[in-house]
Amino acid sequence: MNDRCGWVGLEPIYVEYHDTEWGVPEYDARTLWEKLILDGFQAGLSWITILKKRDNFRAAFAGFDPEIIAEWGEADVQRLLGDAGIIRHRGKIEATITNARAYLELNATEGFDHFLWKYVDGVPLQNRFATQADVPPSTPMSLQASKDLKARGFKFCGPTIVYAFMEATGLVNDHIITCHRHGECAAMAQEAKGR
User: Fold this and answer.
1) Nearest to 139 by CA among 131, 147, 102, 130
2) Across-strand partners of 125?
3) CATH of 12-192, one of 1.10.340.30, 3.30.565.10, 1.20.120.1200, 3.40.50.9100
4) CA-based nearest residue to 124, from 76, 194, 59, 47
């Protein structure tokens, strides 16, 4: 199928991710948190690098269980820095532990999913970009969400990371209009109105 977004490429893992996961509205708080963490690890790298290591990340980070990760300390940071299956970046590893604590606090008071979905009033924002070049790296919405997350104690969540996260988790439909997934994700957004 040639009618895909231009960033996909030809690798089967990337094609499958684009065709089944990217842009699909995600409402589960834990899954949203995992995806935000992985987008933070992507900073400075390509998403395919993270995608190929995602199962390794899940194994190394206890299935992205924030209650477990929130209890980790320096010994766990050292263990993860020695794990060749993930991105070994001290700042990003330490941020994951910090973000687990921030997630638990925010999820207990407001609900992490509700906190994020309020930026689009609970319904995925439908963009209609004609080309990949039209898609912005960040928006005023992602800038505000980034500021709000940082105010809640989150790290590695700048506006570009947050916008990529919003695209990936379907808060925003940024499949270009000629992509076969644009209409499919738009239909999912219609279903979201009934939630």
Assistant:
1) 147
2) 172
3) 1.10.340.30
4) 194
Please write the tens of the pLDDT for every residue from 92-146. 999 999 999 999 999 999 999 999 999 999 999 999 999 999 999 999 999 999 9
E-strand spans in 70-188? 125-126, 172-173
Q: Which residues pair with 172 in a beta bridge?
A: 125
Question: How far is the CA of 137 from the CAs of 133, 143, 183, 194, in angstroms?
Answer: 10, 11, 22, 30
Owner of token pair 């794990």 = 83
Token digits for 180? 């076969």
Spatial CA neighbour of 50 closest among 13, 95, 5, 12: 13
